[in-house]
């Protein structure tokens, strides 16, 4: 019965899994429980709680324009020079507040536990005293945070299953 509903939903959105060149299937034995937990937070968030989805984008290039507007080249970006300066790379950590779309972000040179916890400290400062449910993937920096979580009992981490993102 459930699979029929899923297939009807996929067809109604014109999603054809057979046409996909590849996809991953999770072998996580807790897949169903984790998926139900995460989907439940999106569909029916706990009353008066903030639900946040956290992710990272590592190795982003920091680029700056080397020149201002150009009067000669109307392409590729309507009068801007296509020259730029490289400023190294940065890692972006971001928390999306699901209900409002508000984003809290930090960036740093590295992608370690300390940088992740910097983001989480910014998040807890933005919502003092509020119950926070944070949805995370299985990045190594998201694990082994028990001391930090014990220090702020208002924060609860919810993990997606392996091979979910």
Describe this structure in words.
By secondary structure, the chain is of the alpha/beta class. Helix content is 27%, strand content 28%. The protein has 4 helices and 5 strands; from the N terminus they run ααβββαβαβ. The protein has helices spanning 2-12, 31-43, 113-126, 146-151; strands at 50-65, 84-97, 103-108, 132-136, 155-159. A 5-stranded mixed sheet has the order 3-2-1-4-5. It is globular. The two termini are 26 Å apart. The relative contact order is 0.18. The model has no long low-confidence stretch (mean pLDDT 78).
Oligomer: single chain
- Number of β-strand runs: 5
Question: Which range best describes the helical content: under 10%, 10-25%, 25-40%, 40-55%, 55-70% or over 70%?
Answer: 25-40%
User: Count the helices. How many?
Assistant: 4
How would you sum up the global shape?
Answer: globular
Describe the main β-sheet briefly. Answer: 5 strands, mixed
Spatial strand sequence of the major β-sheet: 3-2-1-4-5
Strand content: 25-35%
What is the rounded distance between the termini?
26 Å
- Label the structural class: alpha/beta
SSE sequence, one letter per element = HHEEEHEHE
Mean pLDDT: 78
C-alpha-based Rg, rounded: 21 Å
Low-pLDDT windows of residues? none
């Amino acid at each position: 019965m459930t699979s029929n509903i899923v297939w009807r939903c996929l067809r109604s959105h014109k999603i054809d899994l057979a046409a996909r060149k590849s996809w991953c299937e999770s072998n996580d034995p807790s897949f169903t429980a984790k998926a139900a937990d995460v989907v439940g937070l999106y569909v029916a968030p706990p009353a008066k709680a903030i639900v946040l989805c956290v992710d990272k984008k590592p190795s982003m290039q920091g680029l700056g324009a080397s020149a201002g507007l150009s009067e000669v080249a109307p392409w590729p970006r309507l009068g801007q020079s296509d020259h730029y300066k490289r400023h190294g790379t940065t890692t972006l950590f971001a928390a999306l507040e699901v209900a409002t779309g508000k984003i809290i972000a930090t960036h740093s040179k590295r992608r370690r536990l300390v940088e992740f916890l910097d983001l989480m400290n910014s998040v807890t400062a933005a919502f003092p005293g509020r119950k926070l449910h944070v949805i995370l993937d299985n990045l190594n920096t998201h694990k082994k945070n028990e001391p930090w979580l014990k220090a702020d009992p208002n924060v609860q981490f919810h993990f997606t299953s392996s091979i979910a993102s």
